[in-house]
Amino acid sequence: MVEPHIFLSLSTDGVSTARRQGSELPIGSDFSIICSIRPQYEGGSFQLIFSTSNSAQNHILPAVNHSALFLFFDAGYAHQGTYRCVYHVYVFSHNFSSISQVLSLTVSGKLIET
């Protein structure tokens, strides 16, 4: 099975950019993580695994047109860590899974208190 791709999409000043490598986000920004896979089978789902040194979280979305968009708002230091996409599909009475490369994310800037 082919390996899924993972991208970070960040919108600043109305311009959206996508990155595949480790990325730095400005604190307070909205961002999304896109998981996609080359079309091979219909359906399936994407599991986004977020890990820090002391915890892990999972988010799951159905694959739509061989991709899934995970939205995050108001980036903070809690969003720092590594992200991976896992594609799961059930085909011919078997479950198949494939995992992406790691996307490392850091958050920069100072939190402004009001």
TrEMBL record:
Source organism, top-level taxon: Eukaryota
Name the UniProt record assigns to this protein: Immunoglobulin domain-containing protein
Organism name: Characodon lateralis
